[in-house]
Amino acid sequence: MTAGPPFVRELHLDDVGSDVLAVARALRKWAVGRSISVKSLAMTDEMGPAKVQLVGHFQQVEGLHVDRVYGPLTHAKLAALGFFDADGVRLLTEEHAALVAASQPRTEFVTTAELTVQHSSLFRYTEALGDGPGERGYWRVAPLRWDGSIVYSCDCSQHFIGVGHHAGLKHPIFTGDGATGEILKLKPITFAVAQPGDPVVFVGPDHPAGVHVTILHKRVGSDWQVVNMGGPGDPSYGMLSAEADWHARYADAPYSVVLQLPTP
After folding, report:
1. How many CB atoms lie within 10 A of CB 209?
2. Strand, coil or helix: what is 161?
C-alpha cells in the first residue's frame, strides 16, 4: 500500500521544487476530470501563474478559502480526493526529506539571528567563546568611529559570520571575522527561491565588493523582514525594501544580490 502524500510546504508564485511538479500533476488530473482546460499548465518544477490560478480554481470549486496559496488545507483536500499517484507521493516524500535535512542547520542560523535581536545585551561581540554574558559571539571587537566618538561594536558582515559560527555552520566563510566581499563568493540565487537565513548584499558601480549585508528573516507579502546590524547599533529587524531604498539613495549601492546560506 502506498503511503499518503506528505505536505511539504506552502507554495507561492515562483517557488521551485519537485513538490511543485507533484502538485501540478495532481491538479491536472483533478482538472481533466472536470473538463477544465489545462493547456497552459506546464509540467515543470516552477510555480508559475497558471499553477497559482489553478490552485485558486481548485479552492473555489472544493469549498476552500481562496487565497491561491497551496497550503496544508488545500493539500489535505487534494490528497483526500486521491489525485496523487505513486510517482507524486515519491516526489513529495523525497522533497520533504531533503527540506528537513537542509532546514536543521538553517533553523539554527535563523534562531541565532533572532536571538541577537531579542537578547542583544547577551551578544556583546567579543572574541571569547562561552556561555556567559558577553561570550556568546564570535565577532571582532574593533574601535569604530561614529559621530566623532570611538565605540566598540561589530559591522554587518561580522554579524552574519558570527551568527553562522555560533549556529555551528561548518562552511569556511564562518571561520573569519567578516567581509562583504567574502560573503559575495557564496552561491547567487533569486528571490523566488530565497529562504530565511539567506544573506542579501547591496552592491553598486562604486562598491563592487558590497557595502552592507542583511539576513532574510521572514516573508511579509512581497517583501522580506530582515535582521540588520551595522555601526555601533544593536541587531534589529527591518524591511528589505527600506534597506534597498536607503542604499540606492545614500550609499550608491542600488543593486541587491541574494546569496544562498551555506548549510552543509
Report:
1. 12
2. helix
Question: Would you say the pTM of this structure is higher than 0.90?
Answer: no
Task: Report yes or no: 200 and 180 within 8 Å, Cβ to Cβ.
Answer: no
Q: What are the angstrom distances between the C-alpha of 119 and each of 17, 106, 113, 202, 214?
A: 35, 20, 10, 26, 18
Q: How does pLDDT run across 191-211, given as a tens digit for each residue?
A: 888 999 999 999 999 999 999
> Do 251 and 202 meet the contact criterion of CB atoms below 8 Å apart?
yes
**Alpha-carbon distance 53 to 57, whole Å?**
6
Alpha carbons within 13 angstroms on the beta-carbon side of residue 212 total 23
**What is the three-state SS of 92-129?**
HHHHHHHHHHHHHHHHHHHHHHHHHHHCHHHCCCCCCE
Assigned C-alpha cell, 101: 535535512
Note whether 178 and 140 are within 8 A (CB).
yes
Which residues are paired to 257 by β-bridges?
Answer: 201
Residue pLDDT, tens place only, 99-124 = 887 778 999 999 989 988 887 655 55
First to last CA, the chain: 34
Query: What backbone torsions phi and psi does residue 118 show, to the nearest 5 degrees?
Result: -75, -25
Helix, coil or strand: residue 173 = helix
Closest to 152 measured CA to CA, from 233, 80, 222, 228? 233
Helix (H) or strand (E) segment spanning residue 41: none
